[in-house]
Here is the input.
Amino acid sequence: MTPHHSERNAWAKRHRKALTARHTHEDVLTDREFELLLEACSELPSPRAFQARFICLIAGRLGLRAGEIAHFDTTWLDWDRMLIRIPQYEPCACGYCRRQSIQEATRNDELTEEEALEVRWHPKTIASARAIPFDLSLRLELCIERFTNRYDSFSHSRLTINRRVQEAANQANLNGRVYPHCLRATAASYHAYKGVAPVPLQALMGWSDLATAQKYIRISGTATADALRQVHHR
Ligand SMILES: [Zn+2]
Here is the structure.
């Protein structure tokens, strides 16, 4: 086979993969599905009802990752500026942090498990340390307020977060896939539809790459429609 052929095959393979791979944005919940999910949270027994609501709201509207929710601490809240400040570092040695440290040490010969654990917990990337406004709706603001009335930190495992979301989704009879990361994608999509620009969307979501924000905005079509209407309706 000539190099040209194999290149073309590689391209075709990648292209096929791009067309058939399942993307998180395909699992995004509609506004109606998200409301049904929140409604279902309240039907769960206490304290799971509130925990599920807290998770669904801060993941599904503010885009927090499951790992961030599992390490959420009320010291992250800036009440003067109504911001959640995801820190670069939060001392932790939970089961998840230990497992991650072991993995990191396995991948990097110059790093010991102890050294890896010393910098845990930290968010996924440097861009993930960010400030997230929580006064975007009264509903969100109240949920954060209720959380601080009850807890100092979330202090539940990643697994618990998955379970709460799953329980709420079952209760809501939401067919298909509902999981913490699809709630994060739901938040991104929600803000893209509202017309949030690429740079603030990237900052909110803590993406390292502007292209991800641009992808959500392109899929939403809002920016395209607005730009075309501005030209044609003047
Ligand atoms: Zn931890």
Observations:
- The pocket of zinc ion is lined by residues 71, 92, 94, 96-97, 120-121 (CB under 6 Å).
- Residues 26-79+137-221 form a domain with the hpI Integrase; Chain A fold (CATH 1.10.443.10).
- The longest helix spans residues 3-20.
- The chain has a mean pLDDT of 91.
